[in-house]
Design a protein that fits this description.
Rossmann fold; globular; 7 helices; seven-stranded mixed β-sheet; 199 residues; alpha/beta; 7 strands; single chain
Length: 199
């Protein structure tokens, strides 16, 4: 069995990270999280500590430019020689130097059915648009904002009277499942990221 090594990048609570760590705790799961990175002192780094996974933080405020920050972030990621880098609730747009170095082995989860509702407020935007269905996308990261090739999507129904928090919570449940499945499919060769990126 080929086992993928993952570096996971987070900015917040790390619920997607935890889903991957729990999946990888099963010896039969063909991927392992080798390091967790963040752009902040993210609460989700506690999950890495709990599972005994090394972590690092590269704060943009410590650098004179976005490109300098990106170069250091890339250097930290490359220390672990990952097969795949997963942005799981990482809330910053990666500089081109990072994307060109890592993509297509660089994926992201997004709480909408892209290309609908890109950007940081996807759940709020879906509610404002009055759609009956939104969902989750796992996609390859390119240099745009949520514009990369789609790997997999799953729908989530918008219920009457949903608040942003309620809808986002249901989306997160699906997002965790879909991310774990996407990593499994990449590890098993059911998804070829180079082919996906070439579409």
């Amino acid at each position: 069995m080929t086992v993928l090594s993952l570096v996971v990048l987070i900015s917040g609570g790390g619920s997607n990270l935890r889903a991957l760590l729990e999946a990888a705790a099963d010896a039969e799961f063909p991927a392992r999280v080798v390091a967790v990175g963040s752009d902040t002192d993210a609460p989700g780094l506690a999950h890495a500590e709990e599972f005994g996974v090394p972590s690092f933080s590269v704060a943009p405020t410590s650098f004179g430019s976005r490109d300098e920050w990106g170069a250091e972030l890339l250097a930290q990621v490359r220390r672990w020689s990952p097969d795949l880098v997963v942005c799981a609730g990482f809330m910053r747009i990666l500089p081109p130097v990072v994307v060109s170095a890592l993509s297509p082995a660089l994926i992201n989860t997004h709480p909408a059915l892209l290309p609908a509702f890109p950007g940081a407020h996807a759940v709020r935007d879906a509610l404002a648009a009055g759609v009956q269905t939104t969902g989750v996308t796992v996609h390859v990261i390119d240099e745009g904002v949520d514009t990369g090739p789609v790997i997999v999507q799953r729908e989530v129904r918008v219920e009457p009277g949903d608040t942003e928090a309620e809808l986002h919570e249901r989306i997160k449940t699906v997002e965790r499942e879909l991310l774990v499945q996407a990593v499994l499919d990449i590890a098993n060769g059911h998804v070829d990221l180079k082919e996906t990126a070439a579409r």
